[in-house]
Amino acid sequence: MGSGAGGDDSSAVGVGEGELGLAAAPEPDDPMAIANAANRSTPKVAALPRHALTAAISTHFDSRCWNSCLRVQPASTVSQAGGDQRGFGTHSHRHRAARAVKLGMPNLQLYDSPVQLSGLAIGSQGEVVDIGLDQRLVIRFMELGLAPGATVRLLGRCAGSVRVAVGATRVAIANEYADRICLNDSSREPQRSAPPTDTDRTNS
Amino acid sequence: MTKAATDAGRSGGRSLFAADCHGAATGRQAPAGSATVALVGCPNVGKSAVFRMLTGVRAGVGNYPGTTVEVGRGAWKLEAGDSVSVLDLPGTYSLDPISPDEELVRDLLVDSHPDLIIAVVDAVNLSRSLYLVAQLREDARRMVVVLTMTDVAARRGIEVDPQALAGVIGVPVVPVDGRRSTPPPALGDLVDSTLGKTPPAPRLVAVTPGPTGEAVDQLTAAAERFDWIAAVEQVAVTSPGLPTTTRSDRVDRIVCNRWLGPIIFLTAMFAVFMVTTKVAAPLQQALGALVDGPITSGVATAFGWFGAADSAAAHFVIDGVIAGVGAVLTFIPLMILMFGLLALLEDSGYLARAAVVADRLMRAIGLPGRAFIPVIVGFGCNVPAVAATRVIPNARHRLLTVLLLPFVSCNARLTVYVLVGTTFFGGNAGYVVFAMYVISVLLVVGIGRLLRSTVLRDVPREPLMIDLPPYHVPMPRLVAAVTWQRLQAFLKTATGIIVITSALVWVLSATPGLGQRQSDTPAGFDNVAVADSVYGQVSRTIAPVFDPAGFGNWQAASALITGFVAKEAVIAAWAQTYATEEPEDVGQPGALGDQLRSDFAQSSDGHTIAAVLAFMVFLLAYTPCLTTVAAQRREVGMKWTLFGIGMQLIVAWVLAVAVFQVVSRL
Questions:
Q1: Which pLDDT belongs to residue A35?
Q2: What would the pLDDT profile of B391-431 be if each residue is shown by its tens digit?
Q3: Residues 321 to 380 of B: which have CB under 8 A from any A CB?
Q4: Which B residues in the span 400-429 are in contact with A, Cβ-Cβ below 8 Å?
Q5: Which of B75, B212, B488, B659 stands the most exposed, by the fewest C-beta atoms within 10 Å?
Q6: For B261, how many CA atoms within 13 A lie in the half-sphere containing its CB?
Q7: Neighbour tally for A178: CB within 10 Å
Q8: Which residues in chain B have their CB less than 8 angstroms from residue A139's CB?
Q9: How many CB pairs under 8 A join A and B?
Q10: What is the pLDDT of residues B443-472, one digit of tens each?
Q11: How far is B5 from B417, CA to CA, in rounded Å?
């Protein structure tokens, strides 16, 4: 039940105002290296036990931030080959590619990763990289402002959920949906440090 | 506005709005044949405030016919003199539903075109609100956009130009201050004039099917809408786009802190529990005393004027009808407090945070975080707990919660536990009473899982994903209006069923039965021992059902029948049955305790403890009271209420039999 008025009277807005990311997409940080890392790890993934899988999957992402990542999916979510079968799934690679170009975010090449996402993936720069869910849930995330390319800020974690800010919107998402969130806690602004080196990405 | 003009745009589905929904709500309604205006928008955009502003406090709320989805309905008198019927639909982000509430909105908007749609959009989160507008604009519909939260947007440096917005989306836009009690005249004029026009041309969708004719997938269509929204924002919105932390964020650092959050949540729930039990209790007692004292005496005196003070009619009115009315009246303070608290929690923005904090715990039993509130309240009284399920937005989650709440052990049952426990377990009564609460929790968890794997397989299992509205000071007018409307709807539904049943129980207990009589005294209508009345005979007929549970005596059966009406009346019913004084202190059962010990020992062939435990488990698991049944009927309809009663009786019987059979063999 909203009031139709009122609300907190802070005079400023959150990161990524104009939250669809169309206006404020961050610079990519060496996307090809990330994609290559993903491809390199693919054969190993299927042969490893679960705890090793966890580490292997993590190499698909920016390893610098992995210590603060919320959750890594177990082996069951890792596909052997090809793209993920849900969300933007294989039928939407054309769509993904087009959108990636449109957003100026080659990071979205991660869509071609053989690792199947099972929720929201947010990169270390706060960009929504992908949403690995069925279409209706992907659209619901997008309706809440969490479209691929949108810039978000992690506000905190509580009782199995993560709170993020996207523009003026505040959204709470269960950890099950927060597949890979590579942001630090929130109280800090999104880090915009130098892009990581290849070594950073592969030594986890 | 002319009716002829609006008729042109009305589809066959119009009757769905105009007629069918009349049964869904109480309060003042527009005359039949009035144009229907549907109020739609995302959650937390101020839609409810706009609805109250248009329709006043006399609008009503209720379930949409055939569903458990709550809609508001009221009349709005336009400046031009005509009234329109305003339908307040559940909040939805789009026409792509993921819950029954959203499905209803989609069905009503897409299949049964209302005469006009008022889309409420939030100036602070314009892009999010515009997705629904983008979808609605893909068909020719009469529509007006109401822009709310402009003051908050202005404080954040966000400027939305209504004229530019109207120009680019192709429908009129009116800024509205939700804190006002009346709508701006411009809105009424605009609605009036729009109703008289033909619908605007639909938005040109920039996505076309592929060259081979394949359909446009949902994501491509969604992407097109977001592109459109981005274009709209570029034209109509000026935003500083700077990162910042709001006051709500700062509050959330404490309220949603991983350590402090649960403590604050439990404190808030404890406060709700205390208010609905300790604060409401004296008010309920005062009202009860009013009914039992001056009102009853007044009615008796009135009968005395006609020389009928001791007649069957007087007894029927006083012990049947007034007792039923009194039962309803005593719930009024409780319901006002409950609905008022819920409205405060909702309007302040805390309820969404409570849902986040409790989500993981409640999800373990298949319920959303918000269901924690009704469950906690249920330990006080199931009636306001059932009403509190209104805070759960998804209708299927609400249904599951309503079906589980009767298994939450309420205070009324506690008095019976204490009396029975003290009678049979003496100093160990406390352990037995505690065990009842443990069993209650286990039942909620177990039955919840059972229902989710059987009849309620379609209850959504999605993890939490919710919008957290900014905190703000609740508006007393809005809280009062919501409280009043929910109370009105409760009274409307509950009064009839409670009064009728109360009167029926009196008639059954006053009517001599036809079978073998237990006492030698002559019997006539309103002059018969309970054992010889129809009520007593019904109890005797039912009693053998409880033989396998060890308490197949008619006195226990009659107490359980009375307990169906109200658990508070169980002890009084026993006292009446055994013709003993009702104990003032349930911890000292006296003569009543002796009678109970004797009857339970006899009916269980000496396995008294097993029979008593079985009786207590049955008392815990079967239907809590008639008022809860009435509240359930209001929330989920008669079909599910009857299903719930049947389920409770089966569960209670099976458990009672199991307890007796196991314990008696130990």
A1: 37
A2: 787 888 899 999 999 999 988 888 889 888 888 998 888 89
A3: 343, 346-347, 352, 356-361, 363
A4: none
A5: B212
A6: 24
A7: 24
A8: 94, 96, 218-219, 222
A9: 259
A10: 999 999 899 889 988 887 777 888 898 898
A11: 66
Work out the minimum CA distance from A145 to partner chain B, whole angstroms.
6
State pTM to two decimals.
0.71
Burial class for B575, CB neighbours closer than 10 Å (0-12, 13-18, 19+):
middle
Instruction: Choose among A5, A8, A22: nearest Cβ to B177.
Output: A5
Largest CA distance in chain A: 57
Q: Please write the tens of the pLDDT for every residue from A27-46.
A: 334 333 433 433 333 322 33
Please state, in angstroms and rounded to a whole number, the distance separating the CA atoms of residues B390 and B374.
Answer: 9
Q: Verify whether the Cβ–Cβ distance A13 to B240 is below 8 Å.
A: yes
The mean pLDDT value for B96-107 works out to 84
- Give A142's contacts in chain B (Cβ within 8 Å): 131, 222, 226
pLDDT value at B622 more than 90: yes
d(CA B494, CA B502): 12
Q: What is the largest CA-CA distance in chain B?
A: 94
In chain B, whose CA is at the least distance from the CA of A177?
B463
Which is nearest to B451 in space by CA: B494, B401, B394, B492? B401
pLDDT mean over B334-356 = 87
Residue B645's pLDDT band, with cuts at 50, 70 and 90, is very high
CB contact under 8 A, B128 and A169: yes
How confident is the prediction for chain B on average, in pLDDT? Answer: 84
- Distances in whole angstroms, Cα of residue B623 to Cα of each of B36, B409, B528, B651, B653: 40, 11, 28, 10, 12
The C-alpha atoms of residue A145 and residue A168 are separated, in whole angstroms, by: 10
C-alpha–C-alpha distance, residues B203 and B135, integer Å? 9
* Spatial distance between the Cα atoms of B385 and B372, rounded to a whole number of angstroms: 10
How close B149 gets to chain A, by Cα (Å)? 5
Instruction: Note whether A159 contacts B258, CB cutoff 8 Å.
Output: yes
Two tokens, residue B651: 């569960």
Put simply, whether B215 touches A (Cβ < 8 Å) is no
Output the DSSP codes for B167-218: HHHSS-EEE--TTSSS--HHHHHHHHHHHTSPPPPPP-------TT-PPPPH
* B477–chain A Cβ distance below 8 A for any pair: no
Contact in structure between B114 and B17 (CB atoms under 8 Å): yes
Smallest CA–CA distance from B393 into chain A, residue: A1
Length of chain A: 204
d(CA B161, CA A106): 34
* Site from B181, B249, B260 to mutate, A interface, most A CB atoms within 10 angstroms: B249
Interface predicted TM-score (ipTM): 0.74
Q: What is the DSSP letter of B457?
A: T
Least CB–CB distance from A20: residue in B226, B249, B251 = B226
Q: Are A88 and A130 in contact (CB under 8 A)?
A: yes
**CA of B237, closest CA in chain A: separation in Å?**
10
Q: Across the interface, do A3 and B474 touch by the CB < 8 Å criterion?
A: yes
The residue that leads in pLDDT, B288 or A55, is B288
Q: Give the minimum alpha-carbon distance from A190 to chain B in angstroms, rounded to a whole number.
A: 9
pLDDT digits (tens, 9 = 90+) for B523-535: 778 888 877 888 8
Q: Say whether B256 and A16 touch across the interface (CB within 8 A).
A: no
pLDDT at B518: 67
Q: Is A189–B243 a contact, with Cβ atoms under 8 angstroms apart?
A: yes
Q: Tell me the C-alpha distance between A121 and A132, whole Å.
A: 8
